[in-house]
User: Fold this.
Amino acid sequence: MELELLLERELTTHRPPGGTITDVHVCQHDSGKWHINIRVSWRGTALFHVGLYDKKRIRLYKKASSALRHIILGYGHEGVISVHPYPGIKDETTF
Assistant:
């Protein structure tokens, strides 16, 4: 699924006052790497890929735990996080 990019800075230092993260998905690629898809209150109902802080590239993680840690500690999200492993990949090192 190809989504628009939301730069990480918009989730941290440039977040609008009162802006909240409403929906978070951590998804695995067929390569085993993980990325974050997110929905935010100030951008309507669209889902976005999270990009690097100041570069127009999707932020990828080697482990799901790294992505989860970044969402909780970096973005301050305290809600539900959905995790979607790629079907057929059972590599314990990617968790």
User: Anything to note?
Assistant: The domain at 4-87 is CATH 3.30.720 (Signal recognition particle alu RNA binding heterodimer, srp9/1). The first strand starts at residue 4 and ends at 7.
